Amino acid sequence: MSDAGTNGVAAVDDAAAASKVDQKAADLQRATEAGWEKPIPFEYDAAPSEAGAVDERPVKWLSDAVVYEWLDEYGEIGPRDEELEKELYEDPDIQRRGGDAGMAAYQAFEVLVQGMDKIHPFRDFDEAGLHPAILENVKRCKYDFPTPIQAYCIPAVLTGHDVIGIAQTGSGKTAAFLLPILSKLMGKAHMLSAPRAVEGGPRVRAEPLVLIVCPTRELACQIFDEARRLCYRTMLRPCVAYGGAPTKNQREQLEKGCDILVATPGRLMDFMKNTNLLSLARLKFTIIDEADELLSTGWEETIESLFGAGSDTNVDADHTYLMFSATFSKETRKLCREYMEEDFVRIKVGRVGSTHSNIKQSIVYVEDSQKNQALFDLIFSEGPQRTIIFVNSKAKCDIVDDFLYNKGLPSTSIHSNRTQREREDALRSFRSGKCPLMVATGVSARGLDVANVKHVINYDLPSTMHGGITEYVHRIGRTGRIGNEGKATSFYNDRNEDVAPKLVKLLLEAKQEVPDFLEMHKPEDPANIEWNDGTDDESEAGDFGGSFGGDAGADAAFDPNSGFGGGDAGADAAFDPNAGFGGDDTDFAGADDGGFGGGNDDFKADGQDGKVDAW
Ligand SMILES: Nc1ncnc2c1ncn2[C@@H]1O[C@H](COP(=O)(O)OP(=O)(O)OP(=O)(O)O)[C@@H](O)[C@H]1O
């Protein structure tokens, strides 16, 4: 090429670069005028660039968060620590419940309680029979009244039952299991509590009484935070163990003593190998949060090695197992049963996998090639607000984050290829509002509890391969939590047809608008939606729900006017020891399969179903 030619190309390049800079400045100005904070560049230079290199920058890992330091001379309740109180209960970024109207949305759901013993729900935390120290902490958290899952789960655990708890996203499942456990332990704290290291003394082996296992690191830290709040001024000491962060810090915390251990499976298994560091021989409670994820394919082996032969886990009858999730597949329920005592209680708020009306769901038709523009327009039409944008791949996560950043928007992103430090940094900036836009893969779909998330955008709808409708429920559940209102917008195109029928049913069930382009997926009788997806169908042999006789019988016995626990009279009447619980013979199966048997004389007909009728 001649010089003239080369110069010509260079001139075009310069012009293109200049126009890009102009465009960027214009975008930034537009975003600033719309009220968005300036984007914060990620400090790539400060982070080590080589794989495996140690990041020397000072960092406060979430596992290092301060817990109440107990001294032996305290009686049953330690003195106040005002500094810690501020951190635990007054942080402006703590999630607060929505108004009474928002909270009432959960009330629209029937609560189905199945089990041999009757559970008496409570209406007011003052009547829940909680230990005074724990009740004080409930008040400090500003939990004015229980959510339905709490109203039933707390008494079930206090009366010594194993529990499977299924309730909508953001309905307070964490406190539903922590509160009764901590309360029970408080009565015996002095007798039971784990060995504790004294200042300057030798380190101890962690021998927790409570183990909470959950699938993601961020969720583990969040549960740890809730435990820090609820254990305040007590001798119960929570710790957290999760992958990605240095083991040293977490080990040091465990060596100070640990009563409540929150952990992700991988790091837990690593620590369990070091028997001088951790023993599960004294465990009294095991909780599997997001149980359907943890008990699903891919995790069974890990869970098996935690509780099966080879581990030192206490498997005596005094060990209580609790499993929680917002969604539960039939296969998962079968696995759950392996760990549960026969008199376990199953508490189900609404249909398994249902969503509540506090989340306004919309589906918009957008071709893949138009998604960036559609996202940009949507974000601008809404104005500045905390928003999570879900995509289906890590690469897409980076691309969409870059796109928003280059458009002058304060975005961050999180996915599993990021270092743990980057993940914690991203979440911190999102929580604090520095970066109110967060692009995420499914890694953040479950459990994440960030205050004021007003909008969830499914840039990609989760295809069946990416968890399908179950993942959709968890994703949109990042907004509209604990009685707050939120919006969920999903980009849909023909590639998403695999999830369309269930998506439409979900929209109809939650009384949301079904767009024209999804009309053809409407069920024949929209007023009577049949799910047939294994999440709620209790009728098959071998499934413990089936052994109870199925929802049909139990729901039929439910009397919405009888209030708390109402309907058990009906349930009792419907019970036939030879036919199973609930009175629907055709639904009953399992007398001979080792489940709760209809023909089993030991099976007491004292199950119940009821409804929380007031907040
Ligand atoms: N009774 C209550 N009143 C007010 N706020 C509450 C109450 N119980 C729990 N919360 C708060 O509600 C938020 C959601 O609770 P949590 O994370 O336990 O929900 P979840 O049901 O586990 O949701 P997910 O299924 O998405 O994991 C938390 O910030 C928690 O502190």
UniProtKB/TrEMBL annotation:
Organism, scientific name: Paraphaeosphaeria minitans
Protein name as it appears in the record: RNA helicase
Enzyme class: hydrolase
Catalytic activity of the protein: ATP + H2O = ADP + phosphate + H(+)
Key words, A-Z: ATP-binding, Helicase, Hydrolase, Nucleotide-binding
SUPFAM superfamilies reported for this sequence: P-loop containing nucleoside triphosphate hydrolases
Residues covered by the DEAD-box RNA helicase Q domain: 123-151
Cross-referenced CDD domains: SF2_C_DEAD
